Amino acid sequence: MQITQAEAHLPPGVERGPATVRAFHHVLVNSLIANVTTSYLWFALTFWAYLETRSVLATSIIGGSYMLLIAVCSLFFGTIVDRYRKKPIMVVSAGVPLVAFFLAGAIYLAFDEARLADWNGPVFWLFVGVVLVGGVVESLRNIALSTTVTLLVPPELRDRANGLVGTVQGIAFMVTSVFSGLSIGLLGLGGTLAVAVGLTAISLAHLLTIPVPERRPTVVAGEARPAFDVAGAVSAIRVVPGLTALIVFTMFNNLVGGVFVALMDPYGLTLFSVEAWGIVLGVTSLGFVAGGALVARFGLGANPVRTLLLANVGVAVLSMLFAIREVWWVYAVGIFVFMCLAPAAEAAEQTILQRVVPYRSQGRVFGFAQSVEAAASPVSAFLIGPIAQFWLIPYMATPAGRERFAWLLGEGEARGIALVFLLAGTILLVTVLLALVSRPYRRLSASYAAAGDGRSGGRTEA
After folding, report:
1. For position 7, what pLDDT does the model report?
2. What b/e string do you get for 216-233 counting C-beta neighbours within 10 Å, with b at 16 or more?
């Protein structure tokens, strides 16, 4: 079936109402299972790699490689989401990780753990690479879930639905943070892999039982649909005043975020045992649940663009302060408050895109945004790992380094990492304050308001 450009703004499917919202809730529960599965193994892999190698460089390469693969694959994922129905896409995003995690288990059984833990050898990176493939393909679900909110939830409830997505992500983070550390400490890597394979199989089996009311996506007459539709994504972004600036801002935000990808776990593991660090992450991730619940209850206000930037002001200030002294509770409280703010920022970005971008282009736009944002993190992660490992950490351990920065950062084993956090937070704060007074901020706010509440979007195409 072919449609006009005007009709292309409307999502296909049944009239959105209580029945479709219930279907969305079922999909959300399944996403919780999938997120728990992937996060559980990913956290465990990071903990295990650092404990076995004691190398910040190794963990930064692992984290950076994950974000690099996300960046490369997201453009393709977004095109797939726009081209096919959402449930089959989610089935693929569960089936491929099941195969990958099973293969990782086979590699574990084939080699002794000493060889597996040698990060200078090929077996270590083969094992890590297989787990990474499973994690990256599972991220396809995130793009599909963002468009499923538009498909199944009425426009006036989408900010709250995005808050529920944040709550689910927070619950997954909390559960996996606790059990990943305990699993590595008590079960070891082999037991952890067995649990991950089992959870992935349960997620896939549950997903197959969920009905998602949706018609096959339609095609605009004469439209070209390449596998990597960068041009289609860019065209949809450029037509909305200020939206390009939002993508650039979030990309820069992730550039700073790459610092935390590389260094948060190593810093935490200098303050806590692996079991205790997992528990700390689990408890502090209650902030993620609380923040998502607040968004689900109260929404994001009349202007989510402003909400997004104000949340990032808070994140920047926290980044500057949460490692200012090597005190475990200061770090833990900072992480908790950060996790309270993160769902509001994420839900705001999702709500903005769902409102100003036509439904039939949302997969490509979400994929493009995820790609360019994710591309920033590997750059900083790959850079900051060697810089911290070979320069800042050794320098801050010298008498000269301690004398110069003790007044600001105090004393302790990980003052080099604390200095990196402080610098990253300062850069982010300056950037957000400039964004708040910029012209693109005002233009995107106006574009969001002009898009209206979209209540006519419940119509189906003929």
Report:
1. 42
2. ebeeeeeeeeeebbeebb
